[in-house]
Specification:
heterotrimer; A mainly alpha (429); B mainly alpha (171); C alpha/beta (309); A: 429 residues; mainly alpha; 2 domains; 21 helices; C: 309 residues; alpha/beta; 5-stranded mixed sheet; 4-stranded mixed sheet; 19% strand; binds sodium ion
C-alpha cells in the first residue's frame, strides 16, 4: 500500500512538472502520513529533511564547485587541460578520456564520488562544451566514472558495509575493490571512445615534445594545485572535504596573481556556487528523507523477502539480488541501502558460498549504478546540476555507459577472482 | 518588496558561504600548522552547511531554478500552462507549510523546551533547526508572489524554464 | 477472544548498533523475553544499525513520538539530560564492581528518572565497558607519552577536556572516517572499549592498545515518557521484567565479548599495554574542579558516587 502511494504520487508529480526535489518530498510525506499521526509524521519528515544535510562529506560539493568556478574564470583550468591534451594527443574522444581517468582517480583518492563529480565536472564541462561535446554527454561520463571512486579504495561506503556485515575485514574489502573498479573504468573509456567516434567529436593532434614541454611549463602552477590537493590527502594533512576548502584558497590566490579575477567578482562567484549547490541539496535532502520513509515502512525488507523466496539456485538468487539492488538503487540513497540490505542478503549468499568480501564489492557496484540512475540518484543530481542540464536529457548518453557498468557487474558477480585474487594474494583473507 | 527579500537573502548566503570556507581552512590550519586542532570547526561547518543549503533552496525556488521535468508543460496552451503553474506552486506551498513550517517549527519547539545542546559548541540545537521554518516561510512568500504575478500578468512573463544564466547572482 | 486478552501493542525500538554487537544481542533478548512474558500481547519491532538515524536523531525521534524505545550512549544523552553528564567524568569509578553498584543502586535509578521530564525516561543501563587509548605509532606507558598526539574524540566537551589534560590534541572526527584517517595519518590515536576497537576493525591500522580505562560511560535504554505512561501497569511490569532479565544477560555477553575481542586483537598483532593507571587518574583531577564550577548540582552526585563502597 505504502509502496503504491509512494510511487504513484511521485510519478504524477514528476509528470505534471513539480520540481523533482519537491516531488520527492511531497510523495515522501504523503507516504509517511499513512503510517503515523499527522503531527508526528510532519515533525519527523521535517527533522529528516534537515538532518540529511548534516554531513561533513557533503561539504565537498560547494567547495569543489567553488574551486572549479574560480579555476575556470582564472585560467587555471585551461592551462591544466591544455597540458593533459598535449599528453594524450590523438586518442578519439580525448577530453572524454581525461574526464573518466580524472574523475576515477580523484574519486579513488578522495573516497567521495560527489567530491569527484563536483571537482572534475566543474573544471572539464566548460572545456568539453567548447570542443563540441554535449553537456549531457559530459555529465553522463562524469557521474559514471566518479562513482568508481567508491569501489576503488579508500572508500567510506565499504567501511559502512564492513560494520553492517558484522565486521568483514576493511583491509580485504579495500584491496578487493581495485580490479573491479579499474575494469569498470576501462569499459567506460571504451564506450566513450566509440561514442566520440560515432558523434565525430574532435580528435586532438599529435603534439611535438617541444609543445608538450611548453604547455607543461605553463601548467606548473595549476599542477601544483593537484599536488597540494592529492598530496595533502595522501600524506594525511587534510581530509578530502578539507582539501576542497584548501583548493578554493589556492585557486583564489592564483587567480588574483594572474589578475583574471578581482575582489569585486567574489560575491558573484560565491553566489553562483551556492546556486548549483542548493539545487543539489534540495534533491539530496528530499531523497534521503524519502529513503528514510522507505526504511520506516519496511519496503525494502518486504520486497526482498518476496523475491528471494522464488528460487534457491545460486545463479538465480545472485541475479535476483542484483536486480533488487539495481531497482532499489534507482530510488534509494546508498548508505541506507547498504545498512538495510547487508543484513538481509548476506546470510542468503553466505549459505550459497559467496564470500562476504566478494559480496561487498557486488553490492557497492550495484549501488554505484544506482546513484547514477534517475529518478533518484545523488551523484546524478550533482552531475546534472553542474552541467546545467536536465535529468531527462542525460538519460540517452547514460544508457550505453550503464551497459558497460552492468557488464562489469556481471563479470564481478560470477567471477569471484576479480574481487578475491588480490586479497588472497596479500594474505588478507 | 521581492527585490529587497532577494537582496537580503543573497547577502546572507554570501556571508555564510564565505564564513564556511574560512571555517574549514582554519580547521586544517589549526591542526596542521598550529598543532592545536580546533574542536568546534567540524560541528560549525556541518551546521553552516545546513543553513546555506536550505536558505539557498528557498532562494532558488524564488528563481524557479529547481530541476523539473517539463513533459506536460510543453503540450498545453497558455491558459492551461498558467493553471498548471498555479497548481505546482500551490503544492510546493503546501509542502513548505506543513513540513518545513509546522513540522520544522515543532522540532524547533521540542529541542528548545527540552533544551538540547549541540555536542561541542553547546548551543541550543533549536538555533540550527530554525532554518527549517525560515526556509519554509521564504518559499511560501516566493510562491505566493509567483501565483499573484501569474494571475495578474498571465503565463508569458513567467520564467519557467531552467536556465541557470537567469539566476540572479550579482549584488 | 481479543477482548479478553486485551489490546495487542507493538513498540518501535530503533538503535545505531550493528547486528552482532553484545548490546544488540541484549536488546534482542529483551524483545524475545517480552513477547514470551506478555504472551504476544506486547511486541517490539526493531530497526537496527542506524536505519532510522544516529543516536542524536533517535533521541529526537523518541521525543517526537515516532520511535518508542532507543539505546544511546551516555555521551549522546547528556546533551539533553544533564544528569547523564556525570558518567563522562574520567576515573569516576574505582573499578567495574564500583560501577555496577552505582548503576544498580539508587543513584543509577535517579539518573534514569532524570530523563522523564525530557520525554526520555531511562529504563536500563547496558554495559559499555571501560574506554582506553589505542595508537598507531607510539606505545603509551605514562600520560606524558600522549603529549602532542592527535587523538580522535567523540564530539563532547568532556572528551575534549580529557585529551587536553594529557597534553594531547583532541580531534573531533566522524567515527566512520576514523579508519581512513588512521591510514592517512590525520590522527595518531583514538579511544574506545575492546569490543568496539575490535568490531570497528581499527586494530587493522593501529598497533598499540593501552588499557588505561579512563571512562566507563554506560549505554542507556530510553523509552518515550508518554508511551510509558500509556502502558497499563501490567504491561509496564512485563516490560520491566524483560528488561531486567536482558540486563543480566547482556553483562555476561559483554564480559565474554571483552575477552574475545582482546584475544582477537592480540592475535592480529596489536601490542596490549597495561600501564600504571594512577598517574593517568591524577592528571585529570582538575577536570573535577571545572565540573564543580559548571554544574554545582551535579557535583553532589559525584560525591555520592564516591561514597559508595
Ligand atoms: Na576511493
Ligand atoms: Na538512482
Amino acid at each position: 500500500m505504502e509502496l503504491l502511494i509512494l510511487i504513484v504520487s511521485f510519478f504524477i508529480l514528476l509528470i505534471i512538472g513539480v520540481p523533482v526535489g519537491w516531488a520527492l518530498g511531497i510523495s515522501g510525506i504523503l507516504t509517511l502520513l499513512t503510517g503515523l499521526d499527522s503531527m508526528t509524521a510532519l515533525t519527523t519528515f521535517g527533522q529528516q529533511f534537515m538532518t540529511s544535510l548534516d554531513s561533513f562529506t557533503l561539504l565537498a560539493i560547494p567547495f569543489f564547485i567553488l574551486a572549479g568556478q574560480i579555476m575556470n574564470r582564472g585560467g587555471i583550468a585551461q592551462r591544466l587541460i591544455d597540458f593533459a591534451k598535449s599528453l594524450i594527443g590523438s586518442l578519439p574522444g580525448g577530453l572524454a578520456h581525461i574526464n573518466v581517468v580524472a574523475a576515477m582517480l580523484f574519486g579513488a583518492i578522495a573516497g567521495s564520488s560527489v567530491a569527484a563529480a563536483s571537482a572534475i565536472g566543474s573544471i572539464l564541462n566548460p572545456r568539453m562544451k567548447e570542443e563540441g561535446y554535449s553537456k549531457e554527454f559530459s555529465a553522463a561520463i562524469n557521474v559514471t566514472s566518479s562513482s568508481m571512486g567508491l569501489v576503488i579504495p579508500p572508500s567510506n561506503i565499504l567501511i559502512i558495509y564492513s560494520l553492517a556485515s558484522g565486521g568483514t575485514s576493511i583491509a580485504a574489502l579495500f584491496i578487493a575493490g581495485y580490479i573491479p573498479g579499474i575494469l569498470t573504468g576501462l569499459f567506460l573509456m571504451i564506450i566513450a571512445g566509440v561514442w566520440a567516434v560515432r558523434k565525430k567529436f574532435p580528435v586532438g593532434e599529435k603534439t611535438a615534445i617541444k609543445k608538450i614541454l611548453k604547455s607543461f611549463l605553463a601548467a606548473v602552477p595549476s599542477l601544483l594545485l593537484l599536488i597540494i590537493v592529492i598530496g595533502g590527502i595522501v600524506a594525511g594533512i587534510f581530509t578530502a572535504t578539507e582539501a576542497a576548502a584548501i583548493a578554493v584558497v589556492y585557486c583564489l590566490v592564483l587567480a588574483f596573481y594572474y589578475r583574471e579575477i578581482s575582489h569585486k567578482d567574489l560575491p558573484a562567484i560565491l553566489m553562483s556556487s551556492i546556486a548549483t549547490t542548493s539545487i543539489v541539496m534540495l534533491l539530496i535532502a528530499a531523497s534521503i528523507s524519502m529513503s528514510w520513509v522507505m526504511s520506516f515502512a519496511n519496503l525494502p525488507q518486504d520486497i526482498s523477502a518476496a523475491l528471494l523466496a522464488l528460487s534457491d539456485n545460486k545463479i538465480v538468487i545472485l541475479i535476483i539480488i542484483n536486480l533488487i539492488l539495481l531497482v532499489v538503487g534507482m530510488f534509494m540513497d546508498m548508505t541506507p541501502a547498504v545498512l538495510i540490505f547487508t543484513p538481509i542478503f548476506l546470510p542468503v549468499v553466505a549459505e550459497l558460498g559467496v564470500d562476504p568480501v566478494h559480496f561487498g564489492i557486488i553490492m557497492i557496484m550495484n549501488l554505484c549504478i544506482g546513484i547514477c540512475t534517475p529518478p533518484v540518484g545523488t551523484l546524478l543530481f550533482v552531475g546534472v546540476s553542474i552541467a546545467e542540464t536536465t535529468i531527462v536529457k542525460v538519460i540517452r548518453p547514460l544508457l550505453p555507459l550503464f551497459v558497460g557498468m552492468l557488464f562489469a557487474l556481471l563479470l564481478v558477480t560470477f567471477w569471484e577472482d576479480l574481487s578475491l585474487f588480490l586479497p588472497r594474494f596479500f594474505d588478507l583473507m | 518588496m521581492r527585490k529587497i527579500v532577494d537582496k537580503a537573502t543573497r547577502g546572507t548566503l554570501i556571508f555564510l558561504m564565505a564564513f564556511l570556507v574560512i571555517n574549514v581552512v582554519w580547521q586544517v590550519f589549526s591542526r596542521y600548522i598550529l598543532n592545536a586542532p580546533s574542536t568546534f570547526t567540524d560541528e560549525l561547518a556541518r551546521f553552516l552547511l545546513i543553513w546555506v543549503s536550505l536558505l539557498g533552496v528557498a532562494y532558488l525556488s524564488g528563481q524557479n531554478a529547481h530541476i523539473s521535468i517539463d513533459l506536460l508543460q510543453n503540450k498545453l496552451n497558455p491558459a492551461g500552462k498558467m493553471r498548471l503553474q498555479i497548481l505546482i506552486n500551490s503544492l510546493i506551498i503546501a509542502f513548505a507549510f506543513f513540513v518545513l513550517v509546522v513540522g520544522g517549527g515543532h522540532l524547533v519547539y521540542l529541542t528548545f523546551v527540552f533544551t538540547q545542546l549541540t555536542p561541542t559548541l553547546q548551543i541550543p540545537m533549536a538555533y540550527i533547526y530554525l532554518i527549517g521554518p525560515i526556509c519554509g516561510l521564504l518559499v511560501i512568500y516566493y510562491k505566493l508572489s509567483d501565483i499573484r504575478r501569474l494571475l495578474s500578468d498571465g503565463y508569458d512573463t513567467f520564467p519557467a524554464d531552467l536556465d541557470k544564466s537567469r539566476i540572479q547572482t550579482g549584488p | 477472544s481479543k477482548e479478553q486478552q486485551g489490546e495487542q501493542k507493538t513498540i518501535i525500538l530503533a538503535h545505531a548498533m550493528h547486528a552482532t554487537h553484545p548490546v544488540t544481542l541484549g536488546m534482542n533478548y529483551m524483545t524475545e523475553r517480552l513477547e514470551e512474558i506478555s504472551d504476544g500481547r506486547l511486541t517490539v519491532k526493531t530497526y537496527p544499525t542506524s536505519q532510522l538515524g544516529g543516536e542524536r536523531e533517535l533521541l529526537e525521534l523518541v521525543q517526537i513520538g515516532t520511535v518508542g524505545i532507543t539505546k544511546v550512549s551516555g555521551a549522546a544523552l547528556e546533551n539533553i539530560v544533564p544528569a547523564a553528564r556525570v558518567f563522562s567524568l574520567p576515573y569516576l569509578f574505582r573499578d567495574e564492581e564500583h560501577y555496577r553498584k552505582v548503576v544498580d543502586g539508587d543513584i543509577g535509578r535517579e539518573i534514569l528518572d532524570a530523563g522523564t521530564a525530557f520525554r526520555l525516561k531511562g529504563i536500563a543501563y547496558y554495559d559499555a565497558g571501560f574506554r582506553s587509548f589505542y595508537t598507531v605509532d607510539r606505545p603509551i606507558i605514562t600520560p606524558d607519552d600522549l603529549r602532542g598526539l592527535k587523538i580522535r574524540v567523540q564530539p563532547s566537551v568532556m572528551a575534549i577536556n580529557l585529551i587536553r589534560a594529557y597534553g594531547g590534541s583532541a580531534t573531533p572526527l566522524a567515527y566512520g572516517e576514523l579508519y581512513t584517517a588512521f591510514q592517512g595519518g590525520i590522527v595518531d590515536g583514538a579511544e574506545n572499549n575492546p569490543p568496539s576497537f575490535y568490531s570497528s576493525r581499527h586494530y587493522e591500522v593501529t598497533n598499540y592498545y593501552i588499557i588505561n580505562e579512563h571512562t566507563a560511560v554506560p549505554d542507556f535504554l530510553v523509552i518515550s515518557t508518554p508511551l510509558w505512561e500509556s502502558l497499563t501497569e501490567q504491561e509496564q511490569q512485563w516490560l520491566q521484567e524483560a528488561i531486567d532479565e536482558s540486563v543480566h544477560y547482556q553483562r555476561v555477553l559483554w564480559d565474554e565479548s571483552v575477552l574475545e575481542s582482546m584475544e582477537a586483537v592480540k592475535a592480529a598483532g596489536v601490542e596490549v599495554i597495561y600501564p600504571d593507571k594512577e598517574p593517568f587518574r591524577e592528571r585529570v583531577m582538575p577536570i573535577y574542579d571545572t565540573f564543580r564550577e559548571s554544574y554545582p548540582d551535579l557535583y553532589q552526585l559525584v560525591e555520592r558516587i564516591r561514597e559508595i563502597e
